[in-house]
Amino acid sequence: MGCSTTVVKYLVFFFNLIFAVSGATLIGVGVLLKMKNNDIQNFIPDKYHLGLPPILMIAIGSVIFFTAFFGCCGAMKDNTCMLTTFAIILLTLLIVQVAIGAYAFLIIGDTQDLRLSVRQVVEKSYNQYNETQIAKEEFDFLQAFLKCCGVDGPRDWKWQNESVPISCCASQTNNCGIKSTDCFRKGCAESSYVWFKNGLDLLGILAVAVASIEIVGAIFALCLSSSIKNQLRREAYA
C-alpha cells in the first residue's frame, strides 16, 4: 500500500473516532434535553413540537455511533465495501439532517411567533395557579427551575403584603416578597422563551458541527476506497 493511501487510511480511522465521540455527545445532549423537556413539557407550545428534537438527536446519535464501526473496520481491513457503505450512510444522514434543519427553520424561523406562543402558554398556566393543585405545582416548578417570577415579573402576584410564592425566591422561604433581594426579577414568559431558543440554537450548532464531520469523513472514506481499488488493480497487472 502506498504512502498516500496509508495516510488516508489513518485519517479515516481518526475521523471515525471523532465521529463516534460526536455520536455519543449527541446521545448525551439528547437525553439531557429530553429530561429537561419532560420537566417543563406543559409549557412547550404544541405546534412547535419542541419535544421532538431531543428524540431525533438520540436516534441520529445512535446511528452515528454505530456507523463509526463500519468506517473503522473498513479502514483497518482495507474493505472497500464497508468504506462505501460507511460513506453512503454518512451522506444519507447529512441529507436527513438538512431536511430536519430546513423544517425547523420554516416552523421556528419566526422568533416573534415563538415568543408569543410561549407567552400564551405561560399566561394560561399562571391564570390557573389558584384553580388546581397540578397547575400550582407546575408553575411553581417553572419559577424555581428558570429562576423567574410571574409572567412578566414578581409584581404580577398581587397578593397581600406584596408576598409572592415561595418558588419565586432563591431562599425558598415564606418571608420573601416583591421587594426582597432574593426574589427573582425576570418574568417566566421571557425566561421560558430564552430557554427554548437557547436549546434550539444548541441543536443548530451541534447539527452544523456533526454535518461538517460527516462531509469530511465521507470524502476520506471514498478517497480511501478508491485508493485501495487502484492499488489492487496495479498489483493485479504487476
UniProtKB/TrEMBL annotation:
<dbReference type="InterPro" id="IPR008952">
    <property type="entry name" value="Tetraspanin_EC2_sf"/>
</dbReference>
<feature type="disulfide bond">
    <location>
        <begin position="149"/>
        <end position="168"/>
    </location>
</feature>
<feature type="transmembrane region" description="Helical">
    <location>
        <begin position="12"/>
        <end position="35"/>
    </location>
</feature>
<feature type="disulfide bond">
    <location>
        <begin position="148"/>
        <end position="183"/>
    </location>
</feature>
<keyword id="KW-1133">Transmembrane helix</keyword>
<feature type="transmembrane region" description="Helical">
    <location>
        <begin position="83"/>
        <end position="108"/>
    </location>
</feature>
<dbReference type="InterPro" id="IPR000301">
    <property type="entry name" value="Tetraspanin_animals"/>
</dbReference>
<dbReference type="GO" id="GO:0005886">
    <property type="term" value="C:plasma membrane"/>
</dbReference>
<feature type="transmembrane region" description="Helical">
    <location>
        <begin position="202"/>
        <end position="224"/>
    </location>
</feature>
<keyword id="KW-0472">Membrane</keyword>
<keyword id="KW-0812">Transmembrane</keyword>
<comment type="similarity">
    <text>Belongs to the tetraspanin (TM4SF) family.</text>
</comment>
<dbReference type="Pfam" id="PF00335">
    <property type="entry name" value="Tetraspanin"/>
</dbReference>
<feature type="transmembrane region" description="Helical">
    <location>
        <begin position="55"/>
        <end position="76"/>
    </location>
</feature>
<protein>
    <recommendedName>
        <fullName>Tetraspanin</fullName>
    </recommendedName>
</protein>
<keyword id="KW-1015">Disulfide bond</keyword>
<dbReference type="InterPro" id="IPR018499">
    <property type="entry name" value="Tetraspanin/Peripherin"/>
</dbReference>
